[in-house]
Amino acid sequence: MNLELESARLWLRPFKKSDATGLYQMNTDHEVLKYTGDSPLGSIQDAQQYIDDYVNNPAGQIKKYKMGRLACIDKESQEFVGFCGIKTHEASQLTDIGYRFLKKHWGKGYATEACAVILKFAFVTHNKQEIVAHVHEHNIGSQRVVEKLGFDLSHRFLWDGLLPGRYYKMNRETYDNQSY
Fold it and tell me: For labelling alongside 49, which of 31, 154, 171, 175 has CA 20 to 30 A away?
């Protein structure tokens, strides 16, 4: 299965070691991590290790499910701008969409553009019947992205019992009726 996708401005592909600096910068920025609950990466070497494990782990998303978070590369500059992708949760078998971008690339429409490509990948290539999105209650930018894409708010919840979140869903019928 091809894990190299593209939109008008972006290449989406599995992470490469050359993405480590961008991944490190993104995942040490307090503003980027503010609503994720994730801890910052400790070093570029930690980012390289993360990439190696994420891409090569036989039990991971890439190898096991032929999906996962993919690096988003600006076609024009060849710069790493963030990531976007779907992943399946082992226990529930729910598939969620997630994305994160370097702060300097916020407001450029990359999240919506990348998610549209990923939704096609999810519903057409993987024949998924539903995709979910978990968005922090105060992350207005991400709420706008999923709502623009056609997700419906299902309910509010506490993420890991701590962080206030919104649980969005999109089913196959809704996706099939989209025009992006």
Answer: 31
